[in-house]
Amino acid sequence: MTPTLTTASGIPVADNQNSISAGERGPLLLQDFHLIEKLQHFNRERIPERVVHAKGSGAYGSFTVTHDISRYTKAKLFSQIGKHTEVFVRFSTVGGERGSADTERDPRGFAVKFYTEEGNWDLVGNNTPMFFIKDPIKFPDFVHTQKRDPQTNLKSPEMMFDFWSKAPESLHQVTMLFSDRGTPDGYRHMDGFGSHTFSLINANGDKVFVKWHLRTLQGIKNLSAADAVRIAGSDPDYAQRDLFQAIAKKDFPRWEMRIQVATEQQLKDWEARTGWNPFDLTKVWPHADFPLHPVGILELNRNPDNYHAEVEQVAFSPANVVPGMGYSPDKMLQGRLFAYHDAQLYRVGTNHQHLPVNAPRCPFHNQQRDGSMAIHNDGAASNYATVEAQGSAPAGLGHGDSGWPLHGQTGRYDGRGKEDDFTQAGNLFRLLSAQSKQNLFDNLAAPLSQVSRDVRQRQLNLFEQADPAYAAGVRAALQRRGITD
Question: Which first-to-last residue range defines the signal peptide (predicted)?
């Protein structure tokens, strides 16, 4: 039986087809509350879209531990083999708006919310293990170059490559972006990475640094540049459709979680040998130096019931780590620890953690009260904590760790020009097959043919420093497009 239509306050609606008017053809009356409520709600149906990762897809699932890592962490979700933890995963494109095509050349967001018995752990990363910049102060500038020109309101290769060509640190990620992996075949056939360096703390208080990896068990599949453009026109929601339909057919996608592990001393020795800062987000830890260790299996097996309530309003923050986990001196991570939560406060609301998709599955209690969407306001419970007059003794809980030593004087330190931003980009290039290299050359030549000569030459110079064959290949692809400067 169809339920009775009511107002938001539960009052039955007498007529949902005709507004109240002064006579058959007279003006409408303000007393028609049902009409007013519908129009008011309609005007407010869209919350601000995310500045980045605006268009996304999501699903529920579970994480199952397959290997014991308790020697590294006391986090209870890893406490025994076979343990299950409910998860919600959101995939996304990064630079486009909510109406953009799923197949655009772009990094892909890969964010996982683990509803653990000790609170929510958010592993918020991408389908690439590195990023374009190493200092968060440049993040707004970088994102603006990926958006729209303030005059033309068009995407601008000139802006993009003007930024990249002056930022050698971006070359590693630019190489990945314009390779075949820049246009993955949906979300099921790509890997995920925490990207940043995090830390784990065991029951004895011992700390190691880690990088998180999620390897697709469906196999890597990418779209050619031509197919990505074609599908963008015929089915701009291609990745959303593929994920939803696969889960609906019970073809549940799965990923294997692995970690790279290093002690603080191991990272110091590695940096002394390679010259690479292990906490630099534009770099990776080579697998030969830090092998991957299996942890568990992530499976997605339930579609959301309501896109807006769940996929659109889910709120992630890398600051959300549970006891047995911690952070690192990664500058980009340090910036994100603030920025993500702040973005959710603005975009979704003060009490966004109260929404079902964001709420912990374990009991939670704090002294925060009131504000918009105060779904759980704790009734008559106290909204303050008294001062411990005799001092406090930390209970050993929480998501902190013993920290790391700090050195030097406060200030703004610029390592550009002194750091190696080319070797790892060159290593990635040299790993590609001959056909993949040719695809990279052609993918880069397309936007570089649209930029000014100065920007193009700066970018070619970066390719040259990574590998002369890299620059030569892009030049040849440009010449086929009639660009000979």
Answer: none
